[in-house]
Design brief:
- The protein is mostly helical.
- It has four helices and no strands.
- The longest helix is centred in the first third of the chain and has 14 residues.
Length: 104
C-alpha cells in the first residue's frame, strides 16, 4: 500500500475496531500500518473481511497477514526434512561407500 491508500486502510482498521469493540488508538493504527503496509490494499481488505467473518477478537498484524494470504513462512524449508537422517539415504553418506564384508 502507498500513502494514497492510508485513508482506506485507516477506515478499514477503524471498522474492525468497532466490530471487535476495541478502541482504534493512534498507536494501534500506527502498529497496523507498520506491519501491513507491504500488502496491497485489495489483499489487506480481503483479510479484514475474513477477520470480520471468522475471528472472535480483534486480529493482530500476524493474524491479518495470514487472513490476507501472506502468513509467515516456515523457518525450515521442507526439503531439509529429508536430510534429518543421512544414514537413511543410500548413496548419500560416506558409510555407503565402505566395502561390505567379504568384498575387500
Amino acid at each position: 500500500m502507498g500513502d494514497g491508500d492510508k485513508r482506506a486502510f485507516m477506515e478499514t482498521i477503524q471498522a474492525l475496531a468497532v466490530n471487535f469493540r476495541t478502541e482504534a488508538t493512534t498507536a494501534l493504527l500506527q502498529a497496523m500500518w507498520m506491519g501491513l503496509e507491504d500488502l496491497s490494499l485489495v489483499s489487506f481488505q480481503a483479510g479484514a473481511k475474513r477477520a470480520l467473518r471468522e475471528s472472535e477478537f480483534m486480529p493482530t498484524v500476524a493474524e491479518l497477514r495470514k487472513l490476507s494470504g501472506h502468513g509467515r513462512r516456515e523457518a525450515t524449508p521442507p526439503y531439509f526434512e529429508r536430510w534429518k537422517d543421512p544414514l537413511a539415504l543410500p548413496g548419500k553418506h560416506p558409510k555407503d561407500t565402505w566395502p561390505k564384508e567379504g568384498e575387500e
